[in-house]
Design a protein that fits this description.
The protein has one domain: Jelly Rolls (Sandwich), CATH 2.60.120. Helices cover 4% and strands 43% of the residues. Strands 1, 3, 8, 9, 10, 11, 13 and 15 form an 8-stranded antiparallel β-sheet that branches. It has a 7-stranded antiparallel β-sheet with strand order 7-6-5-4-12-2-14, with no helix packed on it. Strand 4 and strand 5 form a beta hairpin. It comes from Chloropsis hardwickii.
């Protein structure tokens, strides 16, 4: 149970990452991914990387610079411009639905204008899911200068688009619906210089 704990990626740049194991029975037509990060990096870094054999950027949450997030589905991406962080935790949720191609992005409990992405696409189920590195091949192909350094917590993946109430609940760490990946019951493996520590503050 990772309640009130964090993954600390200690080095910059780094070859460290965390492998997450999810039981996906079928491909995804909708999903929501949420996580909380704390870093002082100004270079590009990967937060959440979900690769299939066919597509290395099947789902990717990537931060190319402090005032921008990129949200990839099936190798295509949309950009969300954000205020530069003030050296605090940032909570992001990104959701996508195949039927409309609508991509939602929430930062610290607030929605950004929705964008269109990969309408009619299907996200493959046989996936390598990693925190802290961006995959350029299935489960590997890392660029150390896209690695994450800092702290990550509250990682979730759902096979549905969350309602606005639930998006806000995720930001506030309230009760959430059952998930494919849930922080409180996460199946994970640490690779390289990454450690689990208690959160320093709420």
């Amino acid at each position: 149970d990772l309640y009130r704990k964090v993954f600390v990626f200690r080095k910059d740049p780094s070859n460290a990452y965390v492998v997450l194991r999810a039981q996906l029975e079928q491909p995804l037509h909708n999903f929501t991914v949420c996580l909380r990060s704390y870093t002082d990096l100004s270079r590009p870094h990967s937060l959440f990387s979900y690769a299939t054999k066919a597509q290395d950027n099947e789902i990717l949450l990537f931060k190319p610079k402090p005032e921008e997030y990129r949200f990839y589905v099936g190798g295509k991406y949309v950009t969300f411009r954000v205020p530069e962080g003030r050296g605090d935790w940032e909570h992001v949720c990104a959701s996508w639905e195949s039927a409309t191609g609508i991509a939602e992005f929430w930062l610290n409990g607030k929605p950004w204008p929705r964008k269109g992405l990969q309408r009619g696409y299907t996200v493959g189920a046989t996936a390598a899911i990693l925190l802290g590195q961006e995959q350029d091949s299935f489960g590997g192909g890392f660029d150390l200068y896209n690695s994450f350094s800092g702290e990550l917590t509250d990682v979730y993946l759902w096979d549905t688009g969350l309602s606005p109430d639930k998006m806000r609940a995720a930001f506030l760490s309230l009760r959430l619906p059952p998930a494919l990946l849930a922080w409180k019951s996460l199946s994970y493996e640490l690779k390289g210089d990454v450690v689990v520590k208690p959160r320093l503050r709420e």
